[in-house]
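[job 4417] fold queue: 2 targets
>>> target A
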Amino acid sequence: MPETGPVGDDVREAVVEAVAAQLYLAPHEVDARQTFSDMGLDSIGAVEVTNTLATRFGVHLESVLVYECPTVPELADAVAAAVRHRKQVTEAALAPAPEAAQPAEPEPQLPDPTTTPTPTPTPTPTP
């Protein structure tokens, strides 16, 4: 099912624009039902499309993504998923750290078994 909503719509529009630019087409001329290779997108164009989308959305995309997701809806869904993932990672990294749990009682201090107490010297009586 295609991604919808502000992120999905923005990503889909960006995919159409990136593909159209590589094929020297107007965005309305891109047929979302056709595969990119059927539209004439070559490997260099595929790299350019993924680079354009990666830069626009601030995500890492492999250039083979165009071949793994060969239509506008499939590529838009994959890019939207990468955007959501980046957002989740960023939010998790920026979330305040939970406070450390305090022990209910302090742990008893045990004597160190490796040391023995030094005897206290006793004064010797003077005659």
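>>> target B
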Amino acid sequence: MTLGTGLGGAILLNGRPLQGQHFQAGELSFVLNHPDGSLSENWWASQASGVSFVERAAQVLDLPDRQDGKAVFEAIAGGQHPQLNRLFEQYCQDLALIVYNLHTILDLEKVLIGGGISSQPILLDGIRSAYSTIKKSSPVLDSMLSDVEIDSCAF
């Protein structure tokens, strides 16, 4: 999964890229959560966009540069901004739910997170923690679904 302007994806099956009949396999941005309301709010691209998250977080921090991911993640690590912390936790929960749903459908071994913000260890920790919370929310889910490794892409 690539956290950029949307949500990029690629699926490797038996070591080979899965392309699909129309070469659209892995188009994760266009998965809908709900068909009602604004499409820009109800598809995975709007939930998972790293660019959008940084812009919203920069707005919370009132940063002059709305693309200053470094300042955003320094503030998250500092933990001194409750509104920013809630925004970050929600973002990690949204990403973890996407990972959970993909894993449920595809029985994944590993999910690699890419994009500029994926180099932030606090992001991976947040996604892993949220994923664990989702999985442990039900004894049935926890016992029936295997674990999936969540890591960052190597650059």
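[job 4417] complete. Note on B: The chain is about 50% helix and 10% strand.
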